[in-house]
Amino acid sequence: MMMKISIRVIMVVVLICLFSSTSPANDAESSGFRAGAAKADITPTEWPVHMVGSFAPRLAHKAWDPLYVRAIVLDDGNTKMAIAVVDNCLIARSLFDEAKRRVEKNIGIPADHIMASATHTHTAPRARDFPGKKSDPKYVEQMMQGIVEAVTKANRNLEPAEFGRGSVDVPEEVFNRRWFMKPGGVNPNPFFGTIDKVRMNPPRGSKLLDRPAGPTDPEVSFVSLRSVDGRPIALLANYSLHYVGGIPPEGVSADYFGEFARLIEKKLGAKGGTHPEFVAIMSNGTSGDINNYNFRHPRKPAEPFQQMRAVAGRVAGAVTDTYPSVKHRRDVTLDIAQKKLTLNKRRPTPELVARAKKMLAAEKESPMSVQAKLYATRTLSLNEPPFTEELILQAARIGDLGVAAIPCEVFAETGLDIKKKSPLADTFTIELANGHYCYLPTPRQHALGGYETRLGTNILEIEASEKIKAVIFDLLDKVNSHGVDTPESDAKRQ
């Protein structure tokens, strides 16, 4: 009797082993590259809300289109990472930090494996405090919950996947907004009283235009993620365009970033079925000095939404035209690295502090422009501690693609330099990632002056862009598939 029971037990064990070993493909598939995507609605539920993106106060009483957090989660069996893009203009590091902490607690993705950024739509609720301007704690909490929800759902939607990367130039929609002007073309700024060498957003078609002060980056880089049977999962794009605008007042909008996502989802998304919905995302590249105005050849006035939808349509059309040629692959590995960099903040001179105090004290007697008052307030805030800022910098690798993350409004020439000197086959930079520390001009651009270099608009030390770039290169080298700097990348940086 005992012998029969033993034989039966052995047979059961053998059968279990046989069945568990007859599907090596399934085992390999589950341990290989996986991807998931999701989005969470963060449209305000209480009105009115204060909007960001303007010197003057603006209230929104409705939403022209939804605001979302859009996220992807990637997993190669060894490394899991998340990329989230939020429909907002400027987001404080503290908000991102808390959202990442909650994600790590809930689903285990390490906080330093999460790259989160703002799109830079100028028609969104305030998400961080500025001197004299406070954010709504309820909406800040809604945004944090949205980031957690989107990443959590994307993680839940993980499935065996393929990765592809594509690129297409759309030069007709990006223009450098800083211009050298002929004599008489640059006005004194309202607070500092100095004459800059360049002017931001000069009059379009002006006879005083000389030449742009910097380059543009026309490339639309994109990541394509699809299931092993070819169903689209997500598309993450990156384009160096500040925003478009032309949104009617009194309403929030995701601007062209949201419209691009809607068009891509409509064009490439799977029709029907029970699969998770396809998610398209537009992240902001290095667009600190780039906008959508052709200063040489001004366009006719547009109806509300018209230009935003036109730009989104052209960019989305270029991507969908290129998409069929993208080659996808399963053998994808991942890596992500992060480093904290402490930078000095710029300090106002005693003369500027005295001027700011005098102007603010005389406010009721002599009317001041909104900008002058704002700069006076920000100048005084920069004269108070802390006198340093700690930035989170990141670099990720998806196959042979590099993705850098910088928490500033980065100038195009910095992004182009990162692309040129990266050790990886292709690289793009997501700006406004993991916080917001104002504009990031290069030292050369600092010397030219202009809006983006003024105290208050700009808070980090003049050499900040060079120090940030050095760390980004170190991080890209670290995540490079070779694990170390290569002779090729050394030569590119000479």
Describe the overall structure.
46% of the residues are buried. The chain is globular and about 70 Å long. Helix 3 runs parallel beside helix 4 and helix 7 (350-361) crosses helix 8 (370-382). It has helices at 2-21, 24-31, 93-107, 137-156, 255-268, 306-322, 350-361, 370-382, 412-421, 443-448, 464-479, 487-492; strands spanning 34-41, 49-50, 59-60, 62-63, 68-75, 80-86, 114-118, 159-169, 175-176, 178-181, 198-200, 209-212, 219-227, 232-239, 251-252, 279-284, 290-291, 334-344, 388-398, 401-406, 409-410, 426-431, 439-440. With 494 residues, the protein is α+β, with helices and mostly antiparallel strands. 32% of the residues lie in helices and 25% in strands.
What secondary-structure arrangement, pairings included, does this model have?
Blueprint: H1 2-21, H2 24-31, E1 34-41, E2 49-50, E3 59-60, E4 62-63, E5 68-75, E6 80-86, H3 93-107, E7 114-118, H4 137-156, E8 159-169, E9 175-176, E10 178-181, E11 198-200, E12 209-212, E13 219-227, E14 232-239, E15 251-252, H5 255-268, E16 279-284, E17 290-291, H6 306-322, E18 334-344, H7 350-361, H8 370-382, E19 388-398, E20 401-406, E21 409-410, H9 412-421, E22 426-431, E23 439-440, H10 443-448, H11 464-479, H12 487-492
Parallel strand pairs: 4-15, 6-7, 14-16, 20-22, 21-23
Antiparallel strand pairs: 1-5, 1-8, 2-3, 5-6, 8-13, 9-17, 10-11, 10-12, 13-14, 18-19, 19-20
The backbone outline, from C-alpha atoms, is globular
Give helix % range. Answer: 25-40%
- Terminal Cα span: 81 Å
Please state the structural category: alpha+beta
Number of separate helices: 12
**Biggest β-sheet, characterized?**
8 strands, mixed
| Number of DSSP-assigned strands | 23
Strand order of the largest sheet: 7-6-5-1-8-13-14-16
**For the CA atoms, what is the radius of gyration?**
25 Å
Can you tell me the number of structural domains?
2
Mean pLDDT: 90
- Report low-confidence residues grouped into runs of 5 or more: 1-30, 483-490
